[in-house]
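**Paired protein data**
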Amino acid sequence: MKPRTKRLALLGGAAALFVGAIALVLTAFQQNLVFFHTPTDVAEGRAPAERAFRIGGLVEEGSIVREADGVTVRFAITDTAQAIPVTYRGSLPDLFQEGKGAVVQGKLGPDGLFQASEVLAKHDENYMPVEAQYAIDKAQAQAQAQAAADTVQK
């Protein structure tokens, strides 16, 4: 083999390895992406059914139910327009309570029940994830607009 051919073969092999490594990194990155959705997004079917994602909002008042096993907890996450039922096995954060902000990560079951693998609670009274606060504000504005429209129609 000529030296020029050897160099081209070496460069071609290095380029193939580099492309393969980049493809592996991008595949791993894509599999680990977890997107945020609001309860309204989930109710309207805009959330992935087969992938993990996050739902954020408020823990609905009166929705926390602890199962007899002492480990499973059922509750609902709401953006004041829609509420999504959630089940979680494990210990909840100390700040987790009704009427407070929370973000849950997991998968949506075929029955519409969100199986949470992680629950995050807000860390102080002024904090809420930006996406969750936006969703709550948007849902409240839509509810007020609908109430005003209903009042005008009557």
